[in-house]
Amino acid sequence: MEIDIRGPRFGAALTLAVLAIAFFTGSVWVLALQTVVFALGASRGPHRSPYGIFFAKVVKPRISATKETEDSRAPQFAQAVGLVFGLIGLVGGFSAIAPLFYVATGFALAAAFLNAVFGLCLGCEMYLIIKRFSRTKATVEA
Amino acid sequence: MGALGLGLLLAATLIFGFLYRAKRGRVHPAKPLTGEAVVNPLDLSPLTVELGSRGSFIQFSSAFCTPCRATRLLLEGVAATNPGFIHHDIDAEAHLELVRRLHILSTPTTIILDRNGVEVGRASGAPKRDDIERVVASLR
């Protein structure tokens, strides 16, 4: 599905804010909240995650018409990458392994920052690398 | 982690972002991977691609990559306005063996070949128009 490219970027700005709070306060629950948002974005698509719905309902009516669109599967994949980092961070947080919590949260935060500020989708960039890796294993097994 | 940790992380990410943006899309001259000079046509098997009489743009894309579109538009335009150039858009996921052999890590990656099929440069990310035009001018 084609979506406004500003939607995922707006979502990245919100993600950045939430993860910055989690990182600053060390709150596992704030990270848990963002991880739920990642899970919804990864399963339903970024335009149907809470941030995407907020963008469509509140932000989009107030800004100029859509100029550029993208396939929603790209940011959806990136949300799945975010989900993996969120879950790793939660494992660290709930088992009191502080470095794991901070490294995983830090990576997700950095990716959200790059998306919000530079429009660079690090999760999307990882798509081919992950594909290359997964198919290599499949070939070895076959 | 507190304010210092958060500040350091954001500063490091900002620097990374600037470096990445500066590097992304630049056309780098072909570097020999084996230590031998780049003189042989690039092995694109199992694909057989028609070569332009001056040069060819071999673009590797994935199905839903956003910058792949801009790359396609740019290279199609350059090929249309510069006789002797051909643009090929290849689905990276359908040719993973080739993708690995050519050390392609992300889409879009564009490999520029001369008229003999020898690699003269490549760019990962949507190529910068100036870089592409410079390469076009250098290929006779």
Notable features of this structure?
heterodimer, A: 142 residues, mainly alpha, two-stranded antiparallel ribbon, 77% helix, 4% strand, globular, B: 140 residues, alpha+beta, Glutaredoxin, 5-stranded mixed sheet, 4 helices, 5 strands, transmembrane (chain A), DUF4395 (chain A), membrane (chain A)
Structure report:
- The complex is a heterodimer of chains A (about 140) and B (about 140).
- Chain A is mainly alpha-helical and about 140 residues long.
- Chain A has helices at about 5-25, 30-45, 50-60, 75-95, 100-120, 120-140, and strands spanning about 1-5, 70.
- A two-stranded antiparallel ribbon of chain A has the order 1-2.
- The longest helix of chain A has 22 residues, at about 75-95.
- Chain B has a single domain, classed as Glutaredoxin.
- By secondary structure, chain B is α+β, with helices and mostly antiparallel strands.
- Chain B contains 4 helices and 5 strands; from the N terminus they run αββαβαββα.
- Chain B is elongated, with a radius of gyration of 17 Å.
- Chain B has helices at about 1-25, 65-80, 95-100, 130-140; strands at about 30, 55-60, 85-90, 110-115, 120-125.
- The N and C termini of chain B lie far apart (about 60 Å).
- The interface of A and B includes residues 74, 106, 135 and 136 of A.
